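Chapter review: from sequence to fold.
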Amino acid sequence: MVDLSWDNDLAFGDAGEMAVFNLIRDAEAEITTGFFKEYDIKLSDGRTVEVKTDAKMHRTGNHLVECGCDGKGSGIAVTSAEWWVVLDGELAYFCNTDDIKAEGRGREQINWVSWQGKNMKGVLINKISFLPLCRRIYPCKVDISGR
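The token string follows.
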């Protein structure tokens, strides 16, 4: 049974952020904690990273890019991060955030209701379109069981 609680969801996201933080190996990088929508990791050279753990990407072949929540911008629409890093449980895909935004423009938005009852919006980018956007891909195991 999947634990669909805020605490579990936050822990899941935090685990992904920590996996990328450890992968980067920048001794002076800073990881954000709690609710901070601009970015998740700030590198010592000032560049920033947004981490998205997409538990279904490996299975569906699509990356879901969130862009709205309850009528407000969220995800890609509000991040100021230079890098958009997606974890699928096996790999970390490092993309330029502007490239992801450009790829999402003009795509049909999908709507769904989250497990928390929030009205969400986003776009799906399939792996055939997504992979050419990746500047680097690294092995990065993250436990996505139960997601």
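Two observations follow directly from the output. The two ends are 9 Å apart (CA to CA). Residues 6-139 form one domain.
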